[in-house]
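During the no-cost extension, the postdoctoral fellow (Dr. R.K.) reprocessed legacy sequence entries with the updated structure-token encoder. One reprocessed record is reproduced below for audit purposes.
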Amino acid sequence: MNIQNQILITGGTGTTGSRIAKKLIERGYKPRIASRKNPLVTEIDHVYFDWYDETTHNLALENINKLYLVAPVGVMDPSPIVLPFIDLALKKGVKRIVLLSSSLIDEGGPVFGKIHQAIREKAPEWAVLQPSYFMQNFIGIQHSYGIKANKEIVTATQDGKVGFVDADDIAEVGVNALIDEIPHNTNHLITGPEALSYTEAANIIGSVIGESIHHVSISTSTLQDKMVKARMTKDYAEFMVGLDEEIQKGTENRITDTVERITGRKPRSLDEFATIHAHFWKQK
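Re-encoded structure tokens follow.
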């Protein structure tokens, strides 16, 4: 096994990047973490990296031939920032790029779409991860406060269903896409084992923690106003509300065998996830 420092993980302290780094280390690799924050594991190779500071890009890419790419978040079109970095990476010897995108974003579409297209067209070896909604959203900034403080999950999805997926399963697919001898050269639509409405998700979480948790479905305009008040840009809030509308239409009501096919094991269910993290919602 080649354990040289040849894999760069942008967003290396984030939800998927930190998990991919941990799993690579467990397999004997020595990935380089690129982020503005220091990683929790101090002995790991870390380089300061800022998407908006091009002077940090060259050093991050030294002696790298594989790249896990997490683009800036909350930006409608990060391609003017990311595409030059991809060109630099390829020029400096990167052969394989694995991009984190989203299940509802098509190649060439908004947000990550142009980056997706560029990687497919330019990278000798590539993969694009397109996960459904993270189970971690229920313990993260998106829904955790509402569950703990108000016993509710607020969306504009109505009864639409989502194939919620654990970030650990996404990371397992990502690790394989990075280290498998044969490049995947494809998009990976990644879901959990079942599609659930937010009402069903709320019932699962409530059952596990012994509380009555409710799904409150609000209008898309109300949700957009809430997002803007939370300092999200208007155009990005419109985009995010559009995703809830797609869920209403049934676009996310699907499951795939990607996790089991790529990793050899079944993805974690929301019931399993909730059981593991029950202590989080019980904290005051």
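The chain has a mean pLDDT of 94. The radius of gyration is 19 Å. The remaining legacy entries will be reprocessed before the final report is submitted.
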